[in-house]
Give the backbone structure.
Amino acid sequence: MKHYSMRSHLTITFAIMAMIPILILGSFQVSQITHITQESNQNQRQTTYRLGDAIQDYMYYHRNAVETLAATISASDAAFRTRESLTLKLQSLQENLAGFTGIYVVDQNGIIKATHTAANASLIGADVKERDYTKRVQAAQKTVISSLFRGPESLNQSAVAIAVPIYKGNKQADGFVLAVLELAPIKELVTKYDYGKEAYPVVLDHAGKPIYHPNAALTESMADLSKEPVAEDARVQRQGEGTYQLSTSTHKELITYKAIPEIDWIVWVSKSKAAVNAAFIESLRITILLLVFTLILTVLLGSFLAKRLNGTIHALVGYTQRLAGGTFAKPDSKVVPQGSPLELQLLADHFFRMAEQIKENQGALLQLNSELENRVEERTQRLQDEHATLNAVLESMSDAVVLIDVKHNVVYANHRMAEIFAIPMSELGAMNEAALFERIALLLPERQDELQMLTAEPRVQGAFTVKSEQGKERFMMVSAFQVAREGRVFGRGYVWRDMTKEHEIDALKNDLISLASHEFKTPITSIRGGVETLLRVDAQWEESFKQELLEGIHEDIGRIQDLIDEWLDISKIESGAMRINPQPLRLEAVVESAKRRLPQQANYEHTQFEVHLADDMPLVYADKLRMEQVLVNLFTNAVRYNEQHPIIRITAEADERYVHLEVQDNGIGISAEQVDKIFDRFYRVDVSSSRQTGGTGLGLAICKGIMQAHGGEIRVLSKPGEGSTFILSIPSFQGKES
């Protein structure tokens, strides 16, 4: 009975041991299929969002081009609004930007009065006042994008149109520019993405008509899909996903959707729900069948093996129990039953001999173990203390330290070494000396030969300029030394000291001296010349000439005072002594006050301001004079760094904590490598240009300090030749003064 119980136990054990890896494999496979399904859904979401962004960008470029054309027409005099002149402007847009089937100028009465080509001359005089886009643009007096329509102005094809109002000189409405977009480029844009098996995209306009649908008949018939549940959800939730039953499909579909608020369109990507679940169900079925088959096979094999092994194992277990009780009696020759496998018999013989050796060595091992434990514990504690002390010293150093053994492998490096050279600690510890210096050499554009000299001599020093992956330079001083004791060399060590701060201080000192000598020299020379002229006793000057000289002297003194004020401000910012007196302010009043404070070269006569601030914009909580100082600096830079008629556009939006004021100009712009540096002290985008226009390089650094003192921030978006947009995040007034 006991043998039978052990055999059953062995059979069950084999079955369980076999089931465990199968269950793990099955669970892993189900997890993988689930992960693949989730990843597929994630890819579908990302494709939907990319599709929405691509359509938004496409419509933005075309809308921006039409708005530019409308602004050009609005800015022209009546003499330049003849049909011929308008036709030339429309042709220019048609030639420079593809995708338009027709471009027209419509008067205030809804009558087409100019087209881009003589081929459409028959449409001149056509009445479009009943069109949806005409009613909307006349009512809103802003750019609108029409819903899907068909008519002569679209060559009787399904199309959408961009309508932009135009004005007379007195800002009165004078009709609008109508640009009809063909759907073929939009279709090409939509279908270029890989949506996966059994998936397709859909694009709806603001009225729910399909701009693109794989069923072309829906687009041709301009079907109304606005009542589809996915379209209704997109209007409310903007973006998301869900399972829907569409009127155009016979089965449920998994749909990811996104609304494009700028043009009030909706995009979605749909995939059959059955296709999504098919792979998961099939994998689960195969896993279950494999599990059942393996379980049956394992039970049969385990039962067979248990039957053969049961007797011998039972005998060995009994002898083992006696050994555990301290009985080292010589085993009986009948311990291993007849008929047992040869391997088990050999195992039993070795087991018995091992028991004899255990008996002999047990006493000696106990004594040695006790002595060894004491010695190991003492030595381990000493090494731990020494290692902890040494590691604490090296890790607390501000210098980078690396130690190399005699086999030229890295045996130690502190975290400062990994930080300076951007090498992960795990990778750094596995490097050899040559690989380490090759990695460092990648950051040294020059003087790599001198770097190799560090490994050639016992003690040597060198200075290098290290350039990080972000392009930032660090000035490093390195010392190489031998690690030796009592005449035995254990390896080499290198200590890298970061001298960047000291180098920057020297550079700033030189910049300050150069800047002071240049910026003060010009006004002081002018003042001296004016005073010497007035002091001449051998000449009689007219009062108007004296007044002119005195005004020039006054202006130069003001320039010197401005320089001193800037240096005082930057000193306060650096020392943390910048003080502000915040109060609730209307943003529009601050902007208007800043415009009045502009210097002569940036006043109303030379600069066009476009201020678009909503009437319900919340109050900001800021220091009025300091905020005006920031805006005056941004306005002055917009004029100073501009090669055309300066246009400054001011807009704002608010969230729960801040009012984000955007100051956009049409200046020369800033390159990507300079954007991160323009808020540094004494930094100027173009030295030659700065010398021609003046400037200390402190203005934007002061602006940054003022915004930080308010608890806000300033940042910039810019591209060369496309102007710059400075964004001021100003704390909004929360209803009570702090």
